[in-house]
Structures are given as structure tokens and as C-alpha cells.
């Protein structure tokens, strides 16, 4: 089976899982986490196989914008499913799974990158840690959006809709800061390995990626410090989280978009 067929199968399962979870949040269907996990696992399995076929080809490794988008969204969806066994994060599938669907659709019709040379272990560590950090921060951003919705409904005394099936706000905020803390730890490793193993991290094609990643790290560090010593929470935490996530996404994908699409 080729990568396109696997991608189409993954899209179907992602769509089914996200749609059912949305209906459950709207209380139009019973809440069935095992079924969501099963549909999500089928989607992630096919997604992962399509990633493998897209990256590891006969002419070498393909690590362009299309392939890295596939790999990043696969990592995010996989981490969400694994985390859902211990933490109440399965509701985030209504945002994460459609994002994976878009990456798969882009991979089917998007540009094919040129093969890369063999990657040394240090650079592999940098890429993998960057992916994990990006995945945790994106999940945290989705969590922040749910926290903002929950805050709004509580402030306006709305007792119907999503708020009925979400955990208490205190639990949601605690989970948000756990995700951010884990993301910052891995992001620190990613940035540190970049400085160690990449010869010129401030080269012309990497400068804005490096600066934006450092800015994102600083935003999250300030947020964690503000939460620890100033009690920041609620919409303050939401704004800082979304701001830091935006910087990280721009840094992660901005260089590839500029080099591979805009500048060809």
C-alpha cells in the first residue's frame, strides 16, 4: 500500500474520531473515550506508516516542509492518545485530529522535497527534541483554547454546552501548566542541542528560526515564573501560551515555507 492510500485511510479515521468527540462535547452523543482512542489509534497507525514511506525513500531521506508537517502532526496525535490514558486531554482531539488531517491532505497534493544527506546523531537529537517540544506546545495551545472557552462560559454563567463535559477549571489549568513545563524542558534540550551540533545556528537560513524559538522559550519561561510567583492563571495564561505557541510555529515552519515555497 502506498503513502497516499495510507494517508486517505488516516484522514477517514481522524474525521470519524474528531466528529464523534465533537458530538459528545455538544452532548448529542454519549461520551465514549475507548471508541475515540480506537479510532484515533487506527488513524495514527496509518498516519505513521505514511510518514515512514514519505521520509524514507530509495533516493534518501526526505525532510522538507511536507514531510516535517506529516511527522509533526503524527507526533502530536500520538502524544495526545498516549496522554489521554492518564490525563483528561481527549477533548483536544477536536482540534488536533483535524490539524493532522490538513497535514495529510497537504502531503497528498503538496510539493515533494529533495532528498537530504545522512543525518549525524547530534542533528537527529536536535530534530527529534524539536518535534517533541513543538508537539507539547501545540497540545498546550489547544488546551489553552479550551480553558478560554471554559473561562468565558463560567464568567457569563453559562451551564450548557462544552462546560458540562470538561473537567473543573482548576484541573484544566493545572494540566495546561504541566504541558507548558514539559514543553519548555524539551525545548531547552532542542535549543541547546542546536547550539552544540549545528555549526552556524545563526546562518542566514536559520537566523529567524533561532531567534523566534528563543523568543518562544522566553515567553514560556516568563509565564511559568509568573504562575509560580505571581499566581498568573486564567486568560493571562491563555494569552501568553498562545503568543509563545505562535512564535514557535513561525520559527519551526517559517524557514521551510520561505525556502521551499516562496523562494523555491
TrEMBL record:
Domain of life, per lineage: Bacteria
Molecular function terms, GO-annotated: heme binding
Residues annotated as transmembrane: 6-23, 35-55, 61-82, 89-112, 132-154, 175-198, 210-230, 237-255
Cytochrome c assembly protein domain: residues covered: 65-262
Pfam families in UniProt: Cytochrom_C_asm (PF01578)
One Gene Ontology term, aspect cellular component: plasma membrane
Record bears the keyword Membrane: yes
InterPro entries: Cyt_c_assembly (IPR002541), YpjD/HemX (IPR052372)
Biological processes per GO annotation: cytochrome complex assembly
Alphabetic keyword roster: Membrane, Transmembrane, Transmembrane helix
Presence of the UniProt keyword Magnesium in the record: no
Protein name: Cytochrome C biogenesis protein
Amino acid at each position: 500500500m502506498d503513502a497516499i492510500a495510507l494517508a486517505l485511510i488516516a484522514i477517514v479515521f481522524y474525521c470519524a474520531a474528531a466528529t464523534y468527540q465533537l458530538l459528545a462535547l455538544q452532548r448529542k452523543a454519549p461520551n465514549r473515550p475507548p471508541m475515540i482512542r480506537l479510532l484515533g489509534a487506527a488513524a495514527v497507525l496509518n498516519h505513521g506508516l505514511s510518514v515512514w514511506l514519505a521520509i524514507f525513500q530509495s533516493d534518501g531521506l526526505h525532510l522538507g516542509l511536507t514531510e516535517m508537517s506529516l511527522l509533526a502532526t503524527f507526533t502530536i496525535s500520538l502524544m495526545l492518545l498516549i496522554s489521554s490514558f492518564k490525563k483528561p486531554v481527549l477533548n483536544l482531539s477536536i482540534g488536533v485530529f483535524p490539524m493532522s488531517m490538513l497535514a495529510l491532505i497537504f502531503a497528498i497534493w503538496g510539493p515533494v522535497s529533495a532528498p537530504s544527506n545522512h543525518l549525524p546523531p547530534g542533528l537527529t537529537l536536535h530534530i527529534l527534541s524539536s518535534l517533541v517540544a513543538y508537539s507539547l506546545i501545540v497540545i498546550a495551545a489547544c488546551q489553552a483554547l479550551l480553558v478560554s472557552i471554559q473561562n468565558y462560559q463560567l464568567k457569563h454563567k453559562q451551564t450548557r454546552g462544552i462546560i458540562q463535559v470538561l473537567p473543573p477549571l482548576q484541573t484544566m489549568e493545572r494540566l495546561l501548566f504541566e504541558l507548558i513545563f514539559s514543553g519548555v524542558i524539551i525545548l531547552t534540550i532542542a535549543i541547546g542541542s542546536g547550539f552544540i551540533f549545528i555549526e552556524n545556528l545563526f546562518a542566514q537560513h536559520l537566523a529567524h528560526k533561532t531567534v523566534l524559538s528563543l523568543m518562544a522559550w522566553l515567553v514560556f519561561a516568563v509565564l511559568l515564573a509568573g504562575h509560580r510567583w505571581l499566581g498568573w492563571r486564567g486568560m493571562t495564561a491563555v494569552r501568553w501560551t498562545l503568543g509563545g505557541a505562535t512564535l514557535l510555529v513561525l520559527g519551526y515552519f517559517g524557514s521551510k515555507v520561505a525556502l521551499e515555497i516562496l523562494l523555491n
